C-alpha cells in the first residue's frame, strides 16, 4: 500500500486529476477507453474465453487486467476492469455478456412486473468483488483510478432490447408509449448507478466516468424529456462524493449543452465533434476528453501521430483537456500504436497545444 | 403522358418543388425516404423475395412500386424505386443486395487493379432500365419524381468493406494509409454518379437526392479532406442539370457547414439535429428536409402526431421546408401511421409553423 502522503502527492501531481480539475497539467494526460482488453496479448493470455462477468468477479484477476495497460503504455489513469451491466447483473436481472456480441438477456424488460427484477441491489453486498478490486488496485497503482458505470438510458436499452441494437426500436417505443414505465426503469437504474458509483469511491476510486454510450440515438427533445433528469440525479450524487465525474457518449454532438447541464465536470467526445467547437459551445469551465477516432489507431504509425497532432491542435483552446480516443480501443489495435501515441502525447502534447493556441 | 402545360402546372404548383426552391408552399410538402418498401402490403404482394436489383431492372414493376406509396399516402413527391448500388452493379463490379443484410460483394475493393472493375459505365447503356422506369413514371405521376444516387463515400464503404459495417475499419484505413487509391476510387464513383444522375434528369426526374448515408462516420476534418471535393463535384454537376439537389446523411450534425459548402440547395437532416439550430447555422438560403425519428412511427398514433407537431414547430424559422423522416421508413411501420402523418402535416403543417414562428 502507498502511504497517505504518497497518495496525496500522487493526486496533486497527477496530470489527469489536474486536467480534470480544469487546471494546467505538467503534461497532457492520456488514457484510453477499453485500454484493458483484447488488443493486449497479456490480456488474452490471462483471460479465458467466456463471459467478462466471471473475470470481473475475480478481484485479483480484475486488478491485474486493470494494471496491464498502465504498465505497458504509461497512461495517466487506470480504468477499472468492469462492465456497464455489472450492477444489473448483480441485482439478479438475468443478463450476461456474450463474447463478440455484447449484453444479452433472454427475458427482456417489458412490463411493470419486470421492475421487481431490479428491486434488490446493495452495492456493498452484491458487488463486494468490485470494491475488493478497487482496494487491491489502490495498493498497487501510481496513477489515479477511474471507476465507472453505465448510464440509465444505455443500460435500459440493453434490458429492453434484450441484445445490442441498431435502431433502439423497443426502447423508444416504451419511452414514448409508456413513459411512466420507462421513467420508473430509468429512475431505478439511476438509484442503482449512484449506489454502485458511491461504493467505488468509498473503496478508493479517484474519478468516475458515466458511460451513456448510446444516448446519441435520441433527439435533443427526447433526451431532455426522458433521460436528462436521471443523468442529472447521478451527477448531483457524484458531486457529493467529492470526486470529479466525466460523461461519455457517442453521437452526442446535438446533446452537448443538455449534457453539460447535468452538472458533469467533464465531457468525453467521440471523434465527430471538434474539440474547439465544443469548447466554444460549452465555455471555459467544461473539461473535455477525447477524441481520436479509434479506427485511426489501426492505420500506420505516421497516420496515427499526424491525426493525434490534429486533435491536440484542436484542443488548444480547452484549458482542462485529457487526451483519449473518441470511443473504445478496437480489439484489432496493435499495442505498439498506442504506445507510440502515449509517448507522442506526453512528449509533444503541451508544445503542440501552445502552438495551436497562438495560431488560433 | 401529361401534356407539357400540365407538367408546367404540376411543377409550379407542387408544394415540394416550391419548398425546394425556398419559396412558400401552399401546404407543407411531405414524402418519406423508403416510402416504397416492405412496410407496404401492396409492395410485399408485388415483389418476390430475392435481390431488389431484379425488381429495379424491371421498369414496369419498378414504376408500380414507385407509385404505390404516392397513391396510398398522397405524398407530395415520388422517389424512384432503385438502390444506391445500382450503377456500380451495372458497371459490373460484382455487388448484390442480400435481403435483410444489404449490399454485399465477395470481392471487395482492395487495390489499384480493382479500379478496372469500375472502368466501364455508361448510364444510358448500362442503366437503360432506370431511364425507362423514369419515363414510365412521368406518364403516370401527378407529383414530382425524385431521382437519386449514393454518394462516393457511402458507396465506397460497401465496396471496400464487402458488407455493411459498424466501424468502417477498412474504409478508414484505406482513406488514411492509401489516400491516392481512396481518392481515385471516390473520383471514379463521382463520375459514375454524375452520369447516372444526369441520365435520370434527361429521362424526366424533377429533383435529385444524393444519399451519403454513412458519411457521419467521419470526423469533420476527414470529411473536408477526403470526401468533400467529390461531393462538391457532384453538386456542381447537378447545378448544370437544371434541377434542385438534396443531400442526405445520418449523424451529419458536425458536418453541416461543410455539406452546405458542396453547393447543395437542400439538406436532409436525421432526427438528431434540431431544424431550428440547423437553420441558424446554415442561414436562410438553405432548404431543410426532415426529421421525425422513423422509430417514432412505430409508436401509437397520438405519439406520432405529437412528435410530428414538435418537428413542425421546430421547422418554423426555415422558409423552404419539406417534412420527412430522419431516416428511411422502417419495415415494421404500420402504413396507417404514415397515412395519418401525411394527413396531419397537410392539414395543420402551415398553421403550426405559423404559430411556431410567432412563438419564437
Question: Characteristics of this structure?
Answer:
homodimer; alpha/beta; 9 strands; two-stranded antiparallel sheet; disordered N terminus; TIM Barrel; 360 residues; globular
Q: Strands, helices and their partners?
A:
Two copies of one chain form a homodimer.
Chain A: H1 4-13, H2 15-20, H3 41-46, H4 52-56, H5 59-73, E1 78-79, H6 86-90, E2 96-98, E3 102-104, H7 123-126, H8 128-138, E4 145-150, H9 152-161, H10 169-177, H11 179-203, E5 207-211, H12 220-241, E6 245-248, H13 256-260, E7 266-268, H14 275-282, E8 287-292, H15 301-314, E9 321-325, H16 335-359
Parallel strand pairs in A: 1-4, 4-5, 5-6, 6-7, 7-8, 8-9
Antiparallel strand pairs in A: 2-3
Helix pairs in contact in A: 5-8, 8-11, 9-11, 10-11, 11-12, 15-16
Verbal overview:
- The structure is a homodimer of 360-residue chains.
- The first copy, chain A, has a single domain (4-359), classed as TIM Barrel, CATH 3.20.20.210.
- Helix content of chain A is 50%, strand content 10%.
- The first copy, chain A, has 16 helices and nine strands.
- The first copy, chain A, has a seven-stranded parallel β-sheet with strand order 1-4-5-6-7-8-9. A two-stranded antiparallel ribbon of chain A has the order 2-3.
Q: Approximately how much helix is present in the residues of chain A?
A: 40-55%
Largest interface: pair, residues per side: A-B, 34 and 34 residues
Alpha-carbon distance between the two ends of chain A: 45 Å
> Strand share of the residues of chain A?
5-15%
C-alpha-based Rg of chain A, rounded: 19 Å
The low-confidence parts of chain A are 1-10
The CATH top-level class label of chain A: Alpha Beta
